[in-house]
Structure formats: structure tokens, C-alpha cells
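Chain and backbone:
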Amino acid sequence: RDTNRGLVELAQGNWAQAERYLLRSARHSEIPLLNYLSAARAAQKQNASSRRDDYLSLAHQSMQGAGFAVQLTQAELQLVHGQLEQSLATLMQLHASSPKHPHVLYLLARIYQQLRSWGDLKDLLPALRKYDVLSPAAYQRLERIVHRELLTIATQRGKLDSLRASWQHVPKQLRHDVDMVRHYVRCLLIVEAGDDAEQLLRDAIRRHWDLDLVYLYGIIESSDPVRQLSSAESWLKGHENNPVLLLTLGRLCKRNQLWGKARSYLDASIGIRPSSDSYKELGQLLEHLQEADKAKDYYRKGLLLAADEKMDDLLNLTPLDTQVLSVNF
């Protein structure tokens, strides 16, 4: 009766009462392992880590061959309590003895993510997939997060070779993912690898028309701006009235010092859909052409529109826009 009462209290969230009933009946129970493991969970809920560990020790002594179950419970409770290093040490022992155990792999993935140990998590990915530890959607999201983080780390080191190597380790299907391409291009721009970014974007846009990629193409400074402009102009067929492409073409014409052509493209972009970027680019162009009054007018319009665009972004913010780097385990 006490065991049943303790389990009911545990299920109802009455941690202190649950602990009392479970302990009172443990020595007389036919299944003391259940009493002690449940009492450990009740103690954990009260932030009583010392009592929790005592109950886990008693659980281990109460039944021969229960060591794995006790250690797994201990790792879970340590993880919940924020004792990440201790939980990781426990899980590493369990993983060494049972490398295919799905729940051990699941807990390891959680800890590696919380510790931001992306290299270890990358090494764990094949086992997570092979043993169906996560749903397909959760696995794909985790895989994307891991490789994004590794690309970011390589970028922070400032070494292009390291960044290129990280990209080659990204699975092929992810290297064709538009979001992943965008992230890698931004990384390349940070390390000033314009030629790498230009080639990657040119190939990606040929495979999949995406306005974010078209926009990025316009801000890349490659070693061959003439070829870059030629590639972008080849996209006009079927996209003649696309304001993002026209903005990109205006920027590339400026880089090639084709001032009249740049002005035409930027005017066309503004005529279809004004943007703060197009106003700014045209203002800079007119300033270069010594048309100061017109340049100031376009700068002013650009600043006003930039404020409106920022407000629109805030009002349209969705959970996906925040790009929270976590997986709902």
C-alpha cells in the first residue's frame, strides 16, 4: 500500500510525500529497486542531490544485475540537475558497455548539445540515425545545426582551408540546401573568400532560383567582376522585372564602373519595388557622379524606408525567423 501510495504521490507531483512513502516501504517491498529509483526521482525534484545519490546506491545494492538501470537513471537525473560533466561521465561508461542503446545515445546527444560540443555530436550522428533515436524531422534539424555550428567555428578561426574542409564534411544533400548555402556564403564573406562564394552561389542559383542567394551574389567581390556581371545578366530571362535581381545587377555594374547601366538597373528596381538598399546604392552612384542634391534625396528616402522595413520584420517575426539552435528532444 505504501509503495502504491508513493507512486501515486510521485505522479501527482507531491515529491516529499512520495519520498516518505516509498522509503517507508522499501525494505519490505518485493521490488525495492522500484522504490529506491522512484525515491531518487522524488529527491531530485526537491533538489536534494545528496539524498538522490544515496537512494541510487541503495537501488544498486537491492538487486543483482540492476547496475545499468541505476546508472542510466543517475545520468538522467544528473542531466536534469545541470550536472553535465558528471552525467557525461556516467553516460560514457554506459556507452562503452552498450554502444547501441538508444536512450544512452539520446542522452549523449542532449548533453553534447548543451555543452556545445559540436565535434562530438557530429561523430554521434551516424549512430543516432542508424538506431532511430530521433524522429526524421528532429534528426535533420540536429544535423543542420551541427554543421552550421562547425562552419561558424571554422570561420571564427579565420582560416579558409579549415572552413573549406568543414564544408566538405557537410553531407551532400545538405550542401544543396538553400539555408546551408546561405550560411556558408556568409562565412566565406567573413574570411574574404569572394571567389569561393561567387562560384558556390552561381551553381546554387542555377540549381534553385532563390532571391536571398541572388541578393548575396550582388554583394560578393570576386576577382573577376566582369564574369560575375555576365553571369547575373544571364538570369534576366524570365526574371526581367525582379527587383532583387535588378538591384544585384546595379551593384555589379557599379563595381565594373558602368555608371549609366548601373543607374538604369537601380532605377528599374526602385520603380518595381523600392527598397532601402536600392535607394542607398543609387544615392552612392549619384554622389559619385557629383549629383549631390539628388543623392541626398535618395539617401533620405532610403532611411525612411529602412525604418519601415525594420518594423515590418518585427511584425512578421515567426519562430522560424529566430533560428533558435536547439532540437526539441
About this structure: The radius of gyration is 29 Å. Residues 103 and 133 are 7 Å apart (CA to CA). The longest helix spans residues 292-315.
